[in-house]
């Protein structure tokens, strides 16, 4: 196990502040988008979700995680997304942004390739499961006390979500859960993989 480097208190405060502001911005943006969609577009922006293997809409992998099928859908995702995004961002904001991009593109791309045909996939659950996989993966790859502690906390809080990667309700995109989680693990490996020992 590697020893985590000492972090000055001022740097810790900056990290916490940056993670909090980023998380609040993400949540506020999702709510603003959904309210605008409902009241100005009548929900028509939901058509920008992922339609598996529809070549004309592949770029929807970039929009689908930020859309929701109504306020109930968004409410269900808000708290776990806020908690997991904050935990992912608090140590290093740039790695968090890199992980987010990888989760959106890789996870969404896999949904587009392999999800059920004739279906529409949207919602921040791709990010929720992506950050869950990312945080668990960081603990495995880094193996520092801080990373392991955060991984254990994450598992205690949201480990039960892992059942969501299995097929269930036809109205729930278990594919987004599964591929988001896998993309989070890949992000952790790429961004936090241990250097070779000398």
Automatic annotation (TrEMBL):
Transmembrane segments: 66-87, 94-114, 120-141, 148-166, 172-191
Alphabetized GO MF terms: peptidase activity
Topology in the lipid bilayer: Multi-pass membrane protein
Record keywords: Hydrolase, Membrane, Protease, Transmembrane, Transmembrane helix
Coiled coil: none
Pfam families tied to this protein: Rhomboid
Localization in the cell: Membrane
Gene Ontology biological process terms in this record: proteolysis
Boundaries of every Peptidase S54 rhomboid domain copy: 57-192
Main location: membrane
The protein's name: Membrane associated rhomboid family serine protease
Source species of the chain: Deinococcus enclensis
Upper lineage: Bacteria, Thermotogati, Deinococcota, Deinococci, Deinococcales
């Amino acid at each position: 196990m590697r020893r985590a480097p000492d972090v000055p208190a001022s740097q810790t405060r900056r990290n916490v502040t940056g993670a909090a502001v980023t998380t609040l911005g993400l949540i506020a943006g999702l709510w603003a988008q959904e309210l605008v969609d409902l009241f100005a577009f009548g929900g028509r922006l939901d058509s920008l979700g992922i339609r598996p293997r529809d070549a004309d809409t592949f770029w929807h992998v970039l929009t689908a995680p930020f859309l929701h099928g109504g306020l109930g859908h968004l409410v269900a995702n808000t708290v776990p997304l806020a908690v997991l995004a904050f935990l992912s961002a608090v140590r290093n904001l740039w790695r968090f942004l890199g992980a987010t991009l990888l989760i959106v593109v890789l996870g969404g791309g896999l949904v587009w390739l392999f999800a059920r045909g004739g279906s529409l996939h949207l919602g921040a659950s791709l990010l929720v499961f992506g950050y869950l996989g990312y945080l668990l993966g960081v603990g495995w790859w880094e193996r520092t006390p801080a990373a392991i502690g955060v991984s254990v906390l994450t598992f205690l809080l949201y480990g039960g979500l892992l059942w969501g990667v299995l097929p269930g309700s036809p109205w729930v995109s278990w594919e987004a859960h599964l591929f988001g989680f896998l993309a989070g693990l890949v992000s952790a490996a790429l961004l936090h993989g241990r250097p070779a020992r000398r």
